[in-house]
């Protein structure tokens, strides 16, 4: 506050005329930017958009239904928990149904679908998504157990569920991936970006990730859209599974959807700061050391550290972050 203006005098200041701000000119120039110079609106002029607030409520409701004793009502009993889960799912799936309906409008295949048909289609997708929730919970429990097994600092399952950013990010990803496969990519991206903003872990909803996946620490992890990760894989902070190149079409727009991210087979460990780019395959049981930059495939059992690859050594390689050949030493 300027020193020459007393706080009490602000209450006596006259209301400013909007003309003194030049609002008419600003509004006119913003309209010109929106409608002519720098358009961002959907080509069909869609104004009914999915709601970020609604999607936050959906994710919170789903999390509460999946793990009611950790994220649900504090006074749940064995007698009341099923009622709570049912009521929570009823409200959450109704909200999801509406958000799916809005999101489907952005897909070209539904451009000419009437409102009634779109509503019916959205209900069917929400219903199918609900039917997948037990399987999604089973995957999440495998991730939680992997965190407990793989982290010597983990004291118990409750700590992991409530505190671990990797598990938080995977909860969002498992839900988002299911929606992505059901044909609602916009909502899926919403869900994953919420987790990204909260955890610093960026997983595209299209990435396929097997059970018992553990992200330790997690900040800066990036997993691309077409990445395929097997079972019992562990990654540490700042790991990137990215694309090596980005081909473009004749119109200069990058080609969408081509397989451009790594395949990581079962039982692989990737240490902090490693970058793996392109459609390469990391063979089963391999260990990728810290800060390694890798753009080619390695066979099963490889041990890759900065400047060298030792093939067939994965089974005997150290996995606790100690030793030169895993990238944490020399």
Automatic annotation (TrEMBL):
Keywords: Acyltransferase, Amino-acid biosynthesis, Transferase
Keyword Acyltransferase: yes
Tree of life domain: Bacteria
EC number(s) given by UniProt: 2.3.1.30
Region (Disordered): 299-330
Reaction catalysis annotation: L-serine + acetyl-CoA = O-acetyl-L-serine + CoA
Keyword ATP-binding: no
Skewed-composition ranges (Gly residues): 321-330
Family designation: Belongs to the transferase hexapeptide repeat family.
Protein name: serine O-acetyltransferase
Organism of this sequence: Caballeronia grimmiae
